[in-house]
Amino acid sequence: MSTDTGTDPGAGTEAAGEPHPPAGAFAVAELDLKPALEAVLMVVDEPATEEHLAKVLRRPRRAIAVALRELSDEYTRQGRGFDLRLVAGGWRYYTRPEYADAVEGFVLDGRQARLTQAALETLAVVAYRQPVSRSRVSAVRGVNCDGVMRTLLQRGLIEEAGTEPETGAILYRTTNYFLERMGLRGLDELPELAPFLPEADAVEAESQEGVPSFDVDDSGDSQT
Predict the structure, then answer these.
(1) Which tens digit of pLDDT belongs to each residue from 108-164?
(2) Which of 34, 80, 138, 144 is most buried, by CB atoms within 10 Å?
(3) Where are the alpha helices (H) located in the chain, listed in sequence order?
């Protein structure tokens, strides 16, 4: 006579609190690695790290790193219109510079989406002098940059980086999004332009953090 003990074969695992693999995890691990990487990288919103890709695709990081570099080399050899680059600590697809005119014509379609000269100059000062306050950026440029700084903040190209101990002024630095847009792995890849920027201390800075700022936008600057 059989005896029903009411034991569930899976009960021991649940009772032990062992996590179950997510649905489809084993199937993902069996996928061809390079096509799987291509599929994932097609939908990323920001550069994906090797660690994250290894976790998602359930592969060793070493295998992920090798496959990514092989894909990048293959695209270059084939002369594809896009490239796979390591930027800002992660991997993402980018269009190649030689096809920039075609891409710009399609994306903009007559609309002006670029930063103005004033915004580009201000962004350059922040990039090379960071962390830096608004008043020091204005001192280097010789014009009030409050409005342009707000624009760069809104676009996610710069961010707050604490305060200056001596004055309490808010400091600013560039973001990972800045690196991504510039196609840089890190700030150490910035061109050697810093020596050509004047030191803020050597410029008579009339614009201070406590002085009311002009209400300007990124279409230009207000003369101090």
Answers:
(1) 654 455 678 888 899 999 999 999 999 899 888 888 888 889 889 988 899 999 888
(2) 138
(3) 11-15, 25-29, 33-41, 50-57, 61-78, 100-108, 117-129, 134-141, 146-154, 176-182
